[in-house]
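Quick question: what would this complex look like in 3D?
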Amino acid sequence: DAKTTQPTSMDCAEGRAANLPCNHSTISGNEYVYWYRQIHSQGPQYIIHGLKNNETNEMASLIITEDRKSSTLILPHATLRDTAVYYCIVRVAPGGGADGLTFGKGTHLIIQP
Amino acid sequence: GAVVSQHPSRVICKSGTSVKIECRSLDFQATTMFWYRQFPKQSLMLMATSNEGSKATYEQGVEKDKFLINHASLTLSTLTVTSAHPEDSSFYICSAGIAGVSGEQYFGPGTRLTVT
């Protein structure tokens, strides 16, 4: 799986949009971008994933650049409960979740009141 | 939907004893489950992949005789930490994927193991 680079930490004011960047310059054509987050002392939570088109769900939006070498996860109206470590993971095309995930260090997002 | 549970959520055991952790997919069938370990201030590390009805596949450096994994049904996988030592104290997390769907995995809430 391709390597990803994320900032170690970020702050965001409550109610504002949180934009979390991820670089994956070695991504292959069949690799997807997945985002998970882990709130302190809990299991990770799936957020969103995409291949090349921008994606949106009830939790977040995912913007992938045209060359697919980077992406941004957007939490449109951050709340205190969004404080967590966010992981950007690049992996091969989904095949029923048959492969374990490789977690990097992620970005510790802190939402400030 | 896609809920994964773990039991117990927290366990304290004495050095030399064994501890079993259960991972259940509550509303879906999981042919594959995964076990991760997370030490304080570190990221999750994949320990093993558990396939229903067959032997688990362990990551390099994980002792298969110490971390026994059983995946006897499509909704249950167990991890037994045998002869636990204080260095095995960690946060153990399982996950499950849904076969044929888009590849996201669903994680359990984790089990905090403390070996005294």
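Answer marked as accepted. The beta strands of chain A are 9-13, 18-23, 31-38, 45-50, 55-56, 61-64, 70-75, 84-92, 107-112.
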